[in-house]
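Continuing the series of single-chain predictions for the mutant panel. This is the parent chain; the variants come on the following pages.
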Amino acid sequence: MRQIWIPKPGAPEVLEIREAPDPEPQAGEVRVRVKATGINFADIMARMGTYPDFPGYPGVCGYEFSGTVDAIGDGVDESYMGKEVLGLTRFGGYSDVVCVPTNQAVERPEALSVEEAGGFAVTYLTAYQLMVVMGSLKEGETVLVHSAGGGVGISAIQIAQALGANVVGTASKGKHEFLRSIGVEHLIDYRTEDFVKRTLELTDGKGVELALDAVGGSSFKKSYECLSPTGRLGMFGFSIGATGKKRSIWALLVGIFGMPWFRFNPLNLMNENKGVFGVNLGQMWDESDRIEGWLTHLMEMAQEGHLKPRIDRSFSFEEAADAHHYIQDRKNIGKVILVP
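Parent structure:
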């Protein structure tokens, strides 16, 4: 098999292709010939050396895939053979062959292409956990979505629309036209506008019931200020710590010291009737049965036409460094895919 390795932390050019023997599925596993794998910001941080969950260097990152089952382990039903599936892998997704337990692979619905399926699992599961499982977003409520043109952002917008909720999105001006085309009426250019002020203006001073923030640092405090009474802030990333293409201790320190460490104290939360929670899908591997249930529900929503990943661009394995540059240069609207 062919894999994209991170031999050491660094700029995108450190990525390299290596050959390895095809893995054999263990008991309860299926082997998948990968046709597409999505790139997520965790991959970027792992390459830079700022992702604490990455097991070490050299290593292979990647968390999602789509492809065809070509071998099964002991105890796996024969019906899995030849199935078109999508799913999750705990690292190692930048490979043209992966082995995963059966509860981490679900049948690809006809409504999704191979590439759409390859970029589905991580962003939609993250958005689902943020909005449905923990954020309890309901019909008629409003959600503030940061980085609305990114993979999680578009996933969150589609889930919100399926729930009958309203969306306020932040994104650079160049992405507004696309976001309007998918039904987002209220948009904020985070580069030129104060998103707290604009969010309150757009909601007639009431604020939003849910805010999704993966920026980190002082942005968490500002997103909290956008909440209405009973509002919830869902934190799920720290992109402020990865502003360049190599690890920057200064950027990490600025982000860490900008955190609202004393703002989210129990007395404030009680007095203001607000909630704060965090989401890290990479820490949910012991909850695989629960995640399988979420993914099954998302497959139903996709088949019904509610969910459709927006694939911005596909890159070959040989172009992996270009793909990482493309994302970090903020050129993508939606998902970027690697195709073996």
